Every structure is written in structure tokens, then in C-alpha cells.
Amino acid sequence: ACHAPAVPRCAPPRQTPCDMLALARSGATALRRAGGSDQQLTSLLRQLSAWATVDPTQMTEAKPGVALNIVGGKWAASSSMKSFPDPLTGKKFMETADTTVAETQPFIDSLKAVTKSGVHNPFKNPERYVLYGDISARVGAELRKPEVLDFFVRLIQRVVPKSYAQAMAEVVVTRKFFENFGSDQVRFLARGFSVSGDHMGQTSNGLRWPWGPVTVITPFNFPLEIPALQLMGALYMGNKPLLHCDQKVAIVAEQLLRMLHACGMPREDVDLLIGPGATMGHVIRRAEPRSTLFTGSQKVGELLASETNGKVYLEDAGFDWKVLGPDAAAEHLPYVAWQCDQDAYACSGQKCSAQSILFAHANWTKLGLFDRMAQVAAKRNLKDLTIGPVLSWTTEAMLAHAQKLLAMPGAKVLFGGKELSSHSIPKVYGAIEPTAIFVPLEEAVKPGNFEIVTTEVFGPFQVVTEWSDGQEGVVLNALERMSHHLTAAVVSNDINFVQRMIGSTVNGTTYCGIRARTTGAPQNHWFGPAGDPRGAGIGTPEAIRLVWSCHREVIQDFGPVPMDHALTQS
């Protein structure tokens, strides 16, 4: 007999002909334009109607997409809703809850109702490990449907415009994560260990224990992947999370929760608060969650660390570096230039792992690396969203930072440094060409200059410098002086050079070899900073255990009690 709790199942995947798959990817509107029958259209839309409440292709000023809060298992609007402009046109296209401090008591009460021992743990409600393995398997199957994949890709594109390939990669990574934790993999996360004791009946057991009530705070740039992976990690380990996403993109997480409900997740398991950061800050101060996961800016991360008395895990921003070693080769130039472009400018540079500074050995510059990078970057355009709006820096702010760099002796614009032409991106956002500013190494490392050079611009913007034989120590000293250590790349097949660089640095996710990159947070390896005891990881079993559980030791001592032993005091 099966003892797993009965939960609703997602509709089984439909077998769709190849021509229908292509039309499904283009959405219902394209299907109708292509002459699809009402029956075909109804069949396609039925795939999503069980849970989706928005159509990303039809979010307009007349019919905006709407995102609501959920608390205690109930969806609800706030007393007032906030409108957002389309990042590409400036026209209203979305409304979200705009929760005020006065409306937070239900969220505070929901967190306070959770015990420190969590919703489940190895001794309490262990069947929920099985439940979440089943849910994960169903979600993975749901995300394999072409129409569901396309739904999330296009919804992501509407709120944080990026190319279809980049948005699809985010959905695919999320799908693979769910597939990774299907069936028994969730209970395996909570695997402990035992050690024999000093006498018969005694055994010590190391267990992974949930925190209980927790909060998850995520940024705008990966509106599906980051909330999904961190939220599920919290749930797998037995916590009750309150999720807060950047308000501009919260509609993606809202739709994720609706899909999770359709795939069997109890509605009471996750609360979603949509509103200003100050509102979420009030909830954290009043509810005092046992732990908070924050992904976002350094400034906010440090503020949270202070306000929670250190009860945080941070996957905050990083000024990410790439060093090109001396073993330059002409046959590798096209690939290395392409990877530099991808690392710096994919998603318009709005990745916490984006290449912020490039240390190129002179042997690479002699081969024409900078010119090749300029040629590749020039292909990016708004039409295919390989370049697009910057949601956290204005055009004026990015160009002003460029001028600060250009004031340094020997600095120059390698390419970019201008506003995008013929665009309708609203002024509240940024719109610049892929930009690279060259600063001589000896100027970049000077006090006063270094702080400007290592300021992270969360957009299509990088600093480039050159180093030569005999300056390896200067480069390493510059890397040592940087304050945050998320990703890095050592581009070289010279094993001795690579070993020296890796051995002298600390970045938590570091690629090395001729194909090394700075970007990439897939589901198959750790992604997170190092060198900070508050550092969080994402996606892997090790990351989930670190962030979403703590160690508990339970010592069993059942006897037998010795009957012939003198019980002496000490």
C-alpha cells in the first residue's frame, strides 16, 4: 500500500505534432494567424488554463497582467495596486500588489506560527520529504511541455527583456533543478550520519535540521530561476518560507507558485509578499525569522545582516574578474573574444556573475583581441534583445561613471560609451551600447582610482586593462584588494599559471582553462561567493544543506543500564 499523501496531479503531457510545437512556441496569437482551428487553439490554451492567470503576449495598458499576494493559502490584492511600465515601450502593462506596512500583520502572524523545528524534519512529518520529491517530478514534467516553457520564457522577457535564448536557458536550468530533486532525492538531502557510542545502546546521530520560519529575498535579473531554486531548497529541508521578489518582476514568481499549487504543493506552504523593500524589512524586524536568504546588492545585504543580527545568508553582488593568461593563440582568439562578449553583455550585463573587469595579457592584445571584441559586441541589438533595458541604472548614471574612468590618464573608450539609438526605453531605466573602457593597469591600481575602477555597474559595461610578463604580482594584488568574491575566470591552458592564480584567489565560483567564463549558474554545480561566512550557494545538494538547514546531534542511549557498576560521584 502507498502511504504517500494524495495530491492533485498535473495534466499528463500531450503529444503534439512538430508543426504544432513550433506554433505553440509562438503563442496562441500566432496559432490563430497561421490558420489554426478553434479546437487546436482551445487545446493549446487548456494546457495553461489550470493555473496560469496571465498571458504574456497580451499584457497591455488596456488589460495589464496582475500579480497578487498569497498568505495563509489565500490569494489577495493589497489596498492599492502599483502599475509598471513596459521596459521596452514605457507603456503600462502590469499591476502588482503594493503591500504597505499597515497590511503586514497576516504575514507576520504566518511566520510566527511556525515552530523552530520546522514544518517537517527527520522525526516530524517525514512523509513531506516524499511529497516534495513527487511535486518536483511533476513540476519537471510540466516545464517540459513546449507551451509551458514558452509561457515562462515570454513572461520573463516582458519584465526583464533579454534574448529568447537567455530566457529559455533560465527556464531550462529551473526545469533540470526540479528533475534533479524528483522522487527520493529530497529525502536524501536530509541524510545524516551515525557514530557508534561508548557502550551498548549508545549511538550519536548527526541530522540536518530546518530553521523553521525563514524569508527569501530575490532580485529582478533572474525572476524564475533564483526564486524557484532557493524557495524549493527551503521547502525541501522543512522550512516555512515567506518570499519577496523585486516588485518589477514578482509576477513571474506569482505564476510559479500557481504552477506549484497545480502540481500538488499545499497552498499554505509558501507566503508571497509583493511590495516595497521597506515593507519586507518591517516584516523581518517584527516576525524575526530564523534565517534570511538574500540575493542582491552589497548595500542591502549588509543592511539585512545588521538588522537580523547576522542571521542571513548572502549571495550578493560581485565585481567579477577575468584574467587572460600569457599563452595566447590565434586559433583560440574567436572563441575567447566571443566568451568575453557573452560574459560582459548577455542579459545586458545584468548578471551578478557578469564580467566586470578584464585583465588581458599583452600577447592577447597583440592578436587583436579588443578589435575582435568590438566586432562581436556590435552585432547586439534591441530587435532580438541581445541588448536591452538596464533596470537598476539609468543611462545618465552609467555614462557619468564612464566619464569618471575616462578622467584617468591613458583611459579610453574601446567601444560603446553611448546611449542606444532609436529606442523607446523609459528614462527610469538605462539604455546604452555594450561598453568597454580601457584603463592602464598602473592607473587602475592607484588609491582613489581603484575604488572607481572596481565599482560594479549592473549593465552592459566593463573595464578592460592589459598586463605583461613581470606584472603577475600586480594583477594578483589587485584581485586581493577586491571586496566581494563571487565568480572569476582564469583563461589559460598553462597549468602552472592557472595553479598560481587559483591558489592566490578566493572567488567562490571560478572557471579555469581556455574555455573559462565568469557567467553560468546551472543546476549542476555550486554557484555562490567564498571568503565570507555568510556566503550562500544555490542549486546543489551542498548549497541547500548549507543555506536551508543546520546540524543537530541526537545521541541515543537506551541501555541496558549497568546493574553491577558502582555509581560514584565525580
Blueprint (SSEs and pairs):
Blueprint: H1 18-33, H2 38-49, E1 65-67, E2 69-71, E3 74-76, E4 81-85, E5 92-97, H3 105-112, H4 127-143, H5 146-159, H6 164-180, H7 185-189, E6 193-196, E7 202-209, E8 213-218, H8 225-236, E9 240-245, H9 250-262, E10 271-272, H10 277-287, E11 291-296, H11 298-307, E12 312-316, E13 320-324, H12 333-345, E14 355-361, H13 362-366, H14 369-377, H15 395-406, E15 412-415, E16 435-438, H16 441-444, H17 449-453, E17 461-467, H18 472-481, E18 487-491, H19 495-503, E19 509-512, H20 541-548, E20 550-557
Parallel strand pairs: 1-5, 8-9, 8-11, 9-10, 11-12, 13-14, 13-18, 14-17, 16-17, 18-19
Antiparallel strand pairs: 2-3, 4-5, 6-7, 7-20, 15-16
Describe the 3D structure.
The chain has 570 residues and is an alpha/beta fold. Helices cover 37% and strands 18% of the residues. The chain has 20 helices and 20 strands. The protein has helices at 18-33, 38-49, 105-112, 127-143, 146-159, 164-180, 185-189, 225-236, 250-262, 277-287, 298-307, 333-345, 362-366, 369-377, 395-406, 441-444, 449-453, 472-481, 495-503, 541-548, and strands at 65-67, 69-71, 74-76, 81-85, 92-97, 193-196, 202-209, 213-218, 240-245, 271-272, 291-296, 312-316, 320-324, 355-361, 412-415, 435-438, 461-467, 487-491, 509-512, 550-557. Strands 15-16-17-14-13-18-19 form a seven-stranded mixed beta sheet, sandwiched between helices. Strands 10-9-8-11-12 form a five-stranded parallel beta sheet, sandwiched between helices. The chain has a three-stranded mixed beta sheet with strand order 1-5-4, with helices on one face. Strand 4 (81-85) and strand 5 form a beta hairpin. Helix 1 packs across helix 2 (38-49), helix 5 crosses helix 6 and helix 12 (333-345) packs across helix 14. It is globular. It starts with 17 loop residues before the first helix and ends in a 13-residue tail after the last strand.
